[in-house]
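Quick one: structure for this chain?
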Amino acid sequence: MACVRGIVRPWAGARPACAARPPPSLARPLSASVPALHGHVHTPKAGEEVHITFVTKEGERVEIEAAEGDNLLDLAQANDLDMEGACGGSCACSTCHVVVESDHYDAMEEPDDDENDMLDLAFGLTETSRLGCQVRVSRALDGLVVSLPQMTRNLQASDFAKR
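Got it. Here's what it folds into:
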């Protein structure tokens, strides 16, 4: 077995020297080897809450009180909302895609090139699409409303296997 870009693959014939023993961090699934960028949700101090509303795939509105510095992926997962975050929040997939519905899109920092590249893979991309792992909560986002799309695209190594 050898590890290529975090995916363990069998080698046909002789194994290259580098494949003899992959580093332990690469022998695990990608989501386990890449730590979440932010990792957990903070408890907001009284009077310092930022109010975020998620609209689920079913149309249910879930209002959450967030602390500055949290990201939308961690908030959604901490509140049992259906947002996958397959890459662990490392901006390497589009499974935490959200659509900003409120007027807060312009108050957010511009998406960087990595985020834009991943957004190109998102299902149902809109002009106000963002990746939840990349949107950090700030006071300027108080009242933010985001919708979870009906579907996500989770491209896995098995999707590219020869058939």
